[in-house]
Amino acid sequence: MATSLLRVAPPEELLRPLAVPERLLLGPGPSNVPRRIQAAGGRQLLGHMHPEVLQVMDEIKAGIQYAFQTRNRLTLAISGTGHCAMEAALFNLLEQGDTVLVAINGIWGQRAAEIARRLGANVYELLKPPGKYFTLQDIEQGLVQHKPLVLFITHGESSSGVLQPLEGLGKLCHRHGCLLLVDAVASLGGAPIFMDQQEIDVLYSGSQKVLNAPPGSAPISFSERAREKLLRRKTKPPSFYLDMGLLANYWGCDGEPRSSRDLLCPLCPQGLESSWERHRANCTQLCQGLLDMGLQLFVEEEARLPTITTVKVPEGYNWKDITAFLMDNHDIEIAGGLGPTVGKVLRIGLMGCNSTSGNVERVLGALQDALKRCHRSRL
Amino acid sequence: MATSLLRVAPPEELLRPLAVPERLLLGPGPSNVPRRIQAAGGRQLLGHMHPEVLQVMDEIKAGIQYAFQTRNRLTLAISGTGHCAMEAALFNLLEQGDTVLVAINGIWGQRAAEIARRLGANVYELLKPPGKYFTLQDIEQGLVQHKPLVLFITHGESSSGVLQPLEGLGKLCHRHGCLLLVDAVASLGGAPIFMDQQEIDVLYSGSQKVLNAPPGSAPISFSERAREKLLRRKTKPPSFYLDMGLLANYWGCDGEPRSSRDLLCPLCPQGLESSWERHRANCTQLCQGLLDMGLQLFVEEEARLPTITTVKVPEGYNWKDITAFLMDNHDIEIAGGLGPTVGKVLRIGLMGCNSTSGNVERVLGALQDALKRCHRSRL
């Protein structure tokens, strides 16, 4: 063309190839992606309806059923992050005016309550300080007082490092005519969860934590009880993209399954139980090392999330100096707090292939170095 | 562990490596992914806040501004498909009771109307048969009659193969106090679009068409007029994940940018105008070849979408026999109709790196072969 009609020039930076440094990602996610999943991400695409894709989608479903320990029919992967799966769960479970009780001991409960309010639900909050978990008594009191249709609770609260005990919770909810919705984004594969035996009605997770895949595929499953609630809806969910009725039909004829399939691979060769045990053992080693350095853990022993450990910011230090020092001098990412824990804790993630004894030693060594070399104010 | 608590066994299929056949994807999307973008998809992850990621996000923004020909500040990529971007546009633009006029000449207008209804908007439909486009007169009549706050229209209607002319439409809408929302999922990069000069208020696209990337990143941009409507909202959008107010803040500190960045690369070295010209030329060659075979095109010449060509199903043939024959014997995907065009047309996509003269010859040869060898009923 003789005269260009273009008024906005192409950005020259995009002509340079992308440089991605190798870093050890020991924050609360994403975690590192092992070679096999990286390779899957580099494969050619297929179409939605190709026979290989339909086959792969069945395999993904079976993989999620294994990871969740469920036989639910309504089990699939959503095209979005774990946060998108949280919206899918709430968009489908709740209608305007439905009463929901949200257990809040960190940012994820806060977020669920915020989304439920956007949907016009009748939201009650059950509060605990960050670092604490809910007992069955706490929950029962809330159920009796508010008579919710749905209880939201976080299994792995990544902002505070708490692992919420789930035993008996499903049965309790069902005794009170309430559905149990559990967020397992930060815990799935790293700590035991048994969707069917624990009578969890809706369970979801993300791909970029223990599953060591890029974000963008989120496993989710609905029990028969939950499915019945969806079928009884009087209004459609606001989203078409996340409408489980449509997704259930589509599933088998939609998707970008390449890395979703492989995201479940890390769990299969070794098995779920060995994955749980490995996460437990490496978390124990990390906690002991932190205590040996004179640091204080944020969560009491019985409720520690094995995937993300929270340690109090050592006195006299600025947490940002420590995370920046690890990044700049050791190529290791760890994180500060999130939401209610900002400024209070450092968060160290050991998830999936990153949960190794060697990485524990590496991050402990780097922290030692940081405590020696970062600025410390006089106490 | 001595006795396993696991009741659901790991699926053995997931232990086998994934096999992905090489196919030429000449359907309405996804298109093939070139080696450079495949390689980007196989890279290690970085964290949301790493300096390289913030840099890459600025580059993505500049790339989208170039592809859209806009200087809008509120320009970013959503973590989802093009369909997810449609929801993001509608979720943010519309509030309960807002009047929206939806131009429907295929499935995407139908979908937008459906989502707007889920949001409680006051939806009016402006209808044309599939294969036809809207004139300024058609639109003006609708604007005068319904006084909408937003007009939705599809630039590249992939179900019918229509390219909607946009010249004068933005000015017309603004004269009537209406915002112009344009879906360019199937057209961006393959046909000229000038967001600022054409006074488009909200524009979005997807990644798996002309941009030749996996689905999962969707570019979107809002004009100042549109931004003001967002700021005037009385209620929050139902989704937190797609809340543009939050995304605008986050953008620069969230994301999985690897393939998003590289998805814009195909447009940069060659330039937008040469991409448009190449798509036009190869579409013309394809259409001529189809006519030479005695086939009939579904859309009149002035409104043909250069990325997806619709040809009437040849008399006496079952369209499924033809698409299956191409897949099985030539490793080429083409598609049947969608929504209102099911059973009426075959759809051939030539998008991004797939839009080459060689691929036109390949698909024409395969179609010749199919017409010879597929079953034909007596007429």
Task: Briefly characterize the structure.
The structure is a homodimer of 379-residue chains. With 379 residues, chain A is of the alpha/beta class. The first copy, chain A, is 37% helix and 15% strand.
Number of domains of chain A: 2
Order of helices and strands of chain A: EHHEHEHEHEEEHEEEHHHHHEHEEEH
**Outline of chain A:** globular
The biggest beta sheet of chain A is recorded as: 7 strands, mixed
Q: Strand order across the biggest sheet of chain A?
A: 2-10-9-8-5-3-4
Query: Approximately how much helix is present in the residues of chain A?
Result: 25-40%
Mean pLDDT score of chain A: 90
Task: Let me know the CATH homologous superfamily of the largest domain in chain A.
Answer: Type I PLP-dependent aspartate aminotransferase-like (Major domain)
Structural class of chain A: alpha/beta
Largest interface (CB < 8 Å):
A-B, 87 and 87 residues
The low-pLDDT segments of chain A are: 253-259
CATH architecture of the largest domain in chain A: 3-Layer(aba) Sandwich
Total helical elements of chain A: 13
GO molecular function (chains A, B): alanine-glyoxylate transaminase activity; L-serine-pyruvate transaminase activity
EC number (chains A, B): 2.6.1.44, 2.6.1.51
Keywords (chains A, B): Aminotransferase, Pyridoxal phosphate, Transferase
InterPro entries (chains A, B): Aminotrans_V_dom, Aminotrans_V_PyrdxlP_BS, PyrdxlP-dep_Trfase, PyrdxlP-dep_Trfase_major, PyrdxlP-dep_Trfase_small, SP_NH2Trfase/AEP_transaminase
